[in-house]
Specification:
Elements: E1 9-13, H1 18-29, E2 33-38, H2 53-65, E3 70-74, H3 80-94, E4 99-102, H4 117-145, E5 149-154, H5 167-187, E6 192-199, E7 202-203, H6 205-210, H7 216-223, E8 239-240, H8 241-252, E9 263-266
Parallel strand pairs: 1-2, 1-4, 2-3, 4-5, 5-6, 6-9, 7-8
Helix pairs in contact: 1-2, 1-8, 3-4, 4-5
Length: 273
């Protein structure tokens, strides 16, 4: 039986681990080949470990184990020129590009008075401009092929409802909600759909590092206990990354050929009040 994205090619940023890796595997399970990028060094602006080349190699191994092809490279989403060259190399090898998952992102969190101009700029540069860079790198081959496509921007529950202690992060993720809708309107005539996904808390290295003891939740709650638990999932437990990958697959597939400009919350209900 043909997979739900059989013989399509997906470009995924932040693919070395967490939700990016889960999406690479899920799309490959349903027949897609993958162009994968992530960083291979610690980003100095980010107060927790970012991905390594070994993490990206593991994603490659998992995709290849499923019998799908993968072109992987290390690249920072702030580097627009390198993104374009990775996409070009991927399309040259895999033959096409249909799906984009702009997933790379960082969470530099804490109460409002801990936000610095450096952390604000790094968050906007990576989460917002890096996402724009990703879409801009992917559009030329998608438009040239004329087959349409599906672009998915990973925002956050905090792109629909602001959370406490996430000032820069919420600002960047709200911006992505608007960016997805603007791109969606303008690209609809070329049958390119653009949607945003809004995860609640997901079981990934980001959530592990940012919610560790002494982290932003503890410091924020100590100052302002009334705000604890905003946007929490109504469903019990911490969401596995595969649940977001399932939503990404749905939006990537032709099952959603008439869904565009949509902000899809996958958050156990947390933003739906
Ligand atoms: N985990 C959560 O609870 C949660 C909730 C809502 C939204 N999100 C969003 O989901 C996306 C995926 O996060 P995750 O949970 O898998 O976390 P993660 O930290 O495990 O994965 C993010 C990946 O992005 C990569 N990355 C960061 N900066 C980059 C850059 N400048 N260039 C290229 N790659 C870069 C990291 O190296 C990492 O591999 C992010 O956009 C995040 O903001 C996460």
């Amino acid at each position: 039986m043909a997979g739900r994205v059989e013989n399509k090619v997906a470009f995924i940023t932040g693919a070395a681990r967490g939700q990016g890796r889960a999406a690479a595997v899920r799309l490959a399970e349903e027949g897609a080949d993958i162009i994968a990028i992530d960083v291979d060094k610690q980003l100095p602006e980010v107060p927790y470990p970012t991905a390594t080349a070994e993490d990206l190699a593991e994603t490659v191994r998992l995709v290849e184990k499923l019998g799908r092809r993968v072109v992987a490279d290390t690249c920072d989403v702030r580097d627009a020129a390198k993104l374009a060259s990775v996409v070009a190399a991927g399309v040259a090898e895999l033959g096409r590009l249909d799906i984009v998952l702009a997933n790379a992102g960082v969470a530099i969190l804490g109460p409002w008075h801990t936000v610095t101009s450096e952390s604000m700029r790094a968050t906007v540069d990576i989460n917002l401009i890096g996402t724009w860079n990703t879409v801009m790198a992917a559009l030329p081959p998608i438009l040239a092929a004329g087959n349409g496509g599906s672009i998915i921007l990973t925002s956050s529950a905090n792109g629909l409802k602001a959370g406490p202690w996430t000032l820069a992060y919420s600002a960047s993720k709200y911006a992505l909600t608007g960016m997805a809708k603007s791109f969606a309107m303008e690209l609809a005539k070329d049958r390119i759909r653009v949607n945003s996904v809004h995860p609640g808390a997901v079981d990934t290295p980001m959530a592990e590092f940012t919610s560790a003891p002494g982290g932003f939740i503890e410091t924020g709650t100590a100052e302002n206990p009334n705000l604890l638990g905003m946007c929490n999932s109504w469903l019990p437990g911490l969401m596995p990354a595969r649940e977001i990958a399932n939503a990404v697959l749905f939006l990537a597939s032709d099952e959603t050929a008439w869904i565009t400009g949509h902000a899809l919350a996958v958050d156990g209900g947390g933003t739906q009040y």
